[in-house]
């Protein structure tokens, strides 16, 4: 059947109206979706205090700006790893009257961290209790302990590692703190010589020389500058007496921390 021109015009208007309706409908959905995402983003920023909304409903920057990744790394950078040697089933050296190296190491390490904190120098302790770092079930706990210590040190990648230990020798008259380093690292040697000088000032009559030892595992395997501080000789009754005192432990901690500050900020 042939349609009149008027009927054709009406049909055309109807089709165009339907098309326009769907276009408007889809556009409205698009706007609503974007608005939802935008609102969510704004709410997230408000929650993190990066922005706020003023009395006029305008968005303004918040006081807490997000740091760049570099800034966060700088704030959280660990400058010093403190390694209290031995622990758990490994007592280390033992004095004639039963003083355990592992206990002295931890006591001095806590005091050193306290002193570093007071100087604003970030540090961490590899252990904070009487334990070793061996993997559970390891057949050779000593090897596992040492490997895990080194792995943690290298993961943290500090400016320096300070491993706290006590010495022993066949002659009970031998006394005094002594610093060991690996001469493959110039920075390790530099710090060791500076620290030995400061430690000698505590007991000048027991002054010793910093010593290179490239066979010590923790020094040779750590990728950062590193030293071992043998704080005294448990084979010496005189050293044992002072090493067990809080006052002497703080003297050692003060000297080591001051040396770290001087070495990091020449």
Rg to the nearest angstrom? 33 Å
As laid out across the biggest beta sheet, the strand order is 4-3-5-8-6-7
What's the count of strands?
Answer: 8
Q: What best-fitting shape do the alpha-carbon axes yield? A: elongated
Largest sheet: 6 strands, mixed
- Unreliable spans: 30-42, 48-74
Distance between the termini: 101 Å
- The CATH class assignment of the largest domain is Alpha Beta
- Give the helix/strand class: alpha/beta
- The CATH superfamily of the largest domain is Zn-dependent exopeptidases
CATH architecture of the largest domain: 3-Layer(aba) Sandwich
Number of helices: 8
SSE pattern, N- to C-terminal: HEEHEHEHEEHEHEHH
Structure description:
The protein is α/β, with parallel strands linked by helices. It folds into two domains: 57 residues, no CATH class; 195 residues, Aminopeptidase. Helices cover 49% and strands 14% of the residues. The chain is built from eight helices and eight strands; from the N terminus they run αββαβαβαββαβαβαα. Strand 3, helix 3 and strand 4 form a beta-alpha-beta unit. Helix 3 crosses helix 8 and helix 5 packs across helix 8. The chain is elongated. The N and C termini lie far apart (101 Å).
Q: What are the key terms here?
A:
Aminopeptidase, 266 residues, six-stranded mixed sheet, 2 domains, 8 helices, alpha/beta, single chain, elongated, two-stranded antiparallel ribbon
């Amino acid at each position: 059947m042939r349609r009149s021109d008027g009927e054709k015009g009406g049909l055309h208007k109807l089709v165009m109206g339907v098309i326009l309706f769907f276009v408007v409908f889809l556009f409205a959905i698009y706007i609503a979706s974007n608005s939802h995402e935008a609102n969510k983003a704004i709410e997230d920023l408000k929650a993190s205090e990066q922005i706020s909304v003023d009395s006029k409903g305008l968005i303004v920057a918040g006081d807490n700006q997000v740091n760049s990744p570099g800034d966060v790394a700088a704030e959280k950078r660990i400058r010093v790893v403190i390694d209290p040697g031995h622990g758990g089933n490994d007592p280390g050296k033992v004095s004639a009257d039963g003083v355990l190296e592992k206990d002295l190491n931890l006591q001095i390490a806590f005091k050193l961290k306290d002193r570093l904190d007071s100087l604003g120098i970030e540090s961490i302790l590899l252990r904070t209790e009487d334990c070793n770092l061996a993997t559970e079930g390891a057949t050779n706990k000593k090897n596992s302990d040492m490997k895990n210590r080194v792995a943690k040190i290298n993961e943290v990648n500090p400016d320096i590692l300070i491993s706290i230990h006590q010495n022993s020798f066949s002659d009970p008259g031998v006394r005094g703190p002594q610093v060991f380093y690996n001469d493959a690292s110039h920075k390790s040697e530099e710090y060791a010589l500076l620290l030995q000088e400061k430690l000698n000032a505590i007991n000048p009559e027991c002054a010793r020389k910093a010593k290179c030892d490239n066979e010590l595992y923790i020094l040779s395997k750590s990728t950062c500058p590193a030293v071992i501080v043998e704080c005294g000789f448990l084979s010496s009754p005189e050293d044992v007496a002072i090493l067990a005192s809080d006052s002497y432990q703080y003297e050692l901690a003060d000297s080591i921390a001051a040396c770290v500050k001087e070495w990091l900020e020449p």
